[in-house]
Automatic annotation (TrEMBL):
Transmembrane segments: 56-77, 83-101
Source taxonomy: Eukaryota, Fungi, Dikarya, Ascomycota, Pezizomycotina
UniProt-listed PANTHER family: V-TYPE ATPASE ASSEMBLY FACTOR PKR1
Organism: Sphaerosporella brunnea
Protein's UniProt name: ER protein Pkr1-domain-containing protein
Keyword Transmembrane helix attributed: yes
Biological processes annotated in GO: vacuolar proton-transporting V-type ATPase complex assembly
Length: 140
């Protein structure tokens, strides 16, 4: 994973906690700034890369949680049955996205296991071929 550092600007150059966005920085405030900036940079980078990353999934879940909270507040405030249906639709969509993300992670795990097994098979085949060649040389 690449680390992104923000260039110093006129507002960050003279502030001691903004001087370095290094994750090993000891100040709590500077570390929080680094984590948040990395979060937004990861979301921005995910637009240009295939697949998902953890920051995008967290942002999606936070967005749906905020939407559900807003819809529940509007339901309580207006007592309109429209917000009941909007809550159901939003909950169903959120559940579908959670299911889809879990399926993508499962596919990644299966592919990683398949790659590991392919490597093991390839190593065992090359080792058995090497043993067969050594036995052939001994017989000659």
């Amino acid at each position: 994973m690449t680390r992104h550092a923000l260039p110093p600007t006129s507002t960050t150059r003279f502030h001691p906690t903004f001087h370095s966005l290094n994750p090993q920085q000891n100040t709590l405030h500077g570390r929080q700034i680094y984590i948040m900036s990395k979060f937004f940079i990861d979301i921005w980078d995910s637009v240009f890369q295939p697949g998902t990353n953890r920051s995008l999934v967290v942002a999606t879940y936070a967005s749906f949680a905020a939407l559900q909270t807003t819809l529940v507040a509007l339901l309580i405030a207006t007592r309109s049955w429209h917000f009941v249906f909007l809550n159901v639709i939003c909950g169903g969509l959120w559940g579908a996205i959670v299911w889809f993300v879990n399926e993508l992670e499962e596919v990644k795990r299966v592919e990683a296991e398949a790659d590991r097994l392919r490597k093991l098979r390839k190593e065992s085949e090359s080792a058995s071929e090497a043993e067969g060649e050594e036995e052939g040389k001994k017989e000659q």
